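Weekly modeling sync, notes
Attendees: S.R. (lead), two postdocs, one rotation student

Agenda item 3: backlog of single-chain predictions. S.R. asked that every request posted to the team notebook include the full sequence so nobody has to chase files. The rotation student volunteered to paste the first one in as an example of the format we agreed on. Action items at the bottom.

Example entry:
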Amino acid sequence: MKGDIRIDKKGLKTGVWSAVIGTLCCTTPLAIVLLGIGGLSAALAISSLKPVFALVAAVFAVMALALHFRKRYGSCGIGTFKKNKNMVLTTAVTSVVLYFFILNVALPAVSPVILPAQEKPTTGAAELRQASFQVDGLSCASCASAIRQRLLTTGGVYKAEVGEDGKGCFVYDPRQVTKEQVASLAGDGKPTSVLSDEKGDTCRS
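Predicted structure, as returned to the notebook:
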C-alpha cells in the first residue's frame, strides 16, 4: 500500500553501524581498562567526547545513505532522500534506539561484570569513615565501573559506589588513606570534589 513504512535492510545495517560508532565513547574506555592498554585517565578523556562521537555517528549515517543513493540512482539530493524514506527512517530509528539501549541498558549491566570489584569486610575495622564525592564531566557507565574497581583495590578503602553521573561514595580507614587521596584516584586528573565526610561504614552513591 502506498505510504506504508517498512523496515529496510540497508537502513537497518547503516543504523546499527551508526549506533556502534556513536557509543565508542563508552565502549572504548571499557576496552582500554579491560585490556590494560591505557590508564583510567585515557578512558575518562575518551568518554568526555560523547557529543563528538554522536556527531560522527550522525555524519556517518548521512554519508552512507548518500553514497548508496549516488551509486544506485546517480543522485543523493534531498529529493532522493524523500523518495527513499523507508531506508532513511529505518536508519534513523535503528541508530537512535540502539544508541540509547547500549548506553543506558547494555553497558550499565555488562560493565560491573567485566570489571568486577570485591568489597572488603568491615567487621572488626575501627575508625571507619564514609565520604561522598563528585567527579565532574563523567557520564559513562563503563568509566564508573572502572573507577569503582580502582578504588576497591586501594589500601584502606573498604566500600565504593560510583554512578555514571559521577556521583559516588566510599568507606575508608583514615589511618591508611585520606579522603583527598581517594577522591584524587577517582578523578584521575578530572576535577573531583569531596561532598561529605562522616563516621560510618555505609555507602550510598
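Discussion: group reviewed the output briefly. The mean pLDDT is 90.
Action items: rotation student to repeat for the remaining queue; S.R. to check formatting next week.
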